[in-house]
Amino acid sequence: MPKILESATFTLGNGKPVKIPIGQFINNEFVDSVSGKRMDVYNPATGKVIGQVSEADAADVDLAVKAARAAYEKDNRSWGFMQHGRRGALLNKLADLIEANQEELAAIEATDTGKLYKDAYSKDFAGVIATLRYYAGWADKITGKTYNVIPGIHAYSKYEPIGVCGQIIPWNFPAAMFSWKIGPALATGNTIVIKSAETTPLSALKMCEYIKEAGFPPGTVNLITGLGYTAGQAIADHMDVDKVAFTGSGPVGRKIMETAAKTNLKRVTLELGGKSPNIIFDDAKSAKDAAEWAFFGIQMNMGQVCTAGSRILVQEGIADEFTKEFVKLMESVKLGDPFDDSSTHGPLNSSVHFDRVQGWVETGRKEGADTPVCGKDMRKELGGGYFITPTVFTNVKKDSQILSNEVFGPVVSIQTFKTEAEAIAEANRTTYGLASAVFSSNNERLLRMNEAIRAGTVWNNVYNFAHFGVPFGGYKQSGIGRENADAALFNYLETKSVVANMGYVRSPYASL
Ligand code: NAD
To answer: Which residues form the Aldehyde dehydrogenase domain (predicted)?
Structure first.
């Protein structure tokens, strides 16, 4: 095993120095990567490097998988075969430790991602704690079923953990995605090799300190910090990983499925992107209410949300009033330091992503859309952080790329429609199917729309309301499988059927 690495001191965006582990978390130790390589960690609000963590390759993934396998199979004290209630108790203990350190963890998250500190504290980490407690509760409630449908045969099914699960998470909600992934996988008895995104390793590293402190058996959770095409690919490639759960972009999701097919047919679940329609009817409660939700729908986390309401479809009768209200809100955005209480929005997460978002703003303009609000590069004005103001496109041509591609930033289009049928057709005119929303005070219309929209979530008179207690995931090319609620448990379970002869069923070949 490579040598143990000491934690390093990172100065957070609020000026506070904090010790954070920088090694690969394998077998409950933070160890150097086999290659000894390091990767820089940036503060997106300043564009400056604030430290380094170790960088994993395939060799480190292999060590982590071996640790996870041993923790799964070792003996009856190991994770896979432990008393289920004990698993729940450990998940609760982890939630308690995270809660006791919520301020520091939220400060780490705000520094690493660029999101506002107040959001990281009251939304992201409140969610992490609640999610872990929710799945702690499930740990001893996963039972089987009986299928007594054949005379003389007692048949039952039992649910068993899949084994060693690889989990690959993105940078927009690093801590929340960590909890969405480890919560159900641990509650069901799997062991884990999880990889954080290259730009946001810090909150996961710090939470692994608490995994050790809580008393999880060594090897139950292993964290890899590294690049996607090396360390992430190595997880997908590994012959002893039984399942990969991935959240990220479509092209990488496809690659993971392809790799699973070429290696050991590991189970694959995917949470991918979206181009979600937010549909506002003339009979919505008010133009102002719909505009406020639409604003939250696209500006939450600076638009870096897979469910972002990036295609607003508004009925002609309310369109002018809605657009006026919505534009006013988009212009009110106050970009600034994520730790400054007066900031309403922070920077994008990385310079690579900044260039991507700016590129889409340019594309939309070249395609001829109008821009009542147009994304402005604020990097110079705001001290080098990856700040960009929001963009609203109107009069967008139907075949334009800006309507079909996910931007993953504060960029939104507004289209108008006349009839309900037109709204449904336009809402479903996408390869994605992650989320959607309908604003109307007509309940029958809402019910019709809820049936007609091809998406994993349809919000009614609300937007961006994902909750750990409600299934979440995509139709079409937005993914495979569901996270959250009881649905996520089945991403991590195999069903075993036991078919038992009650003593009098004779073989078809029994002598007559
Ligand atoms: P990405 O797919 O490039 O990266 C996501 C993760 O995959 C990272 O940890 C990365 O290191 C890893 N990765 C990259 N290449 C890999 C490979 N070849 N093999 C294995 N792992 C690899 O995506 P991104 O640009 O970091 O994130 C933005 C995308 O994620 C958007 O499209 C967004 O919609 C999607 N997303 C979806 C959800 C959801 O729940 N549906 C949530 C957040 C983000």
So the answer is: 30-498
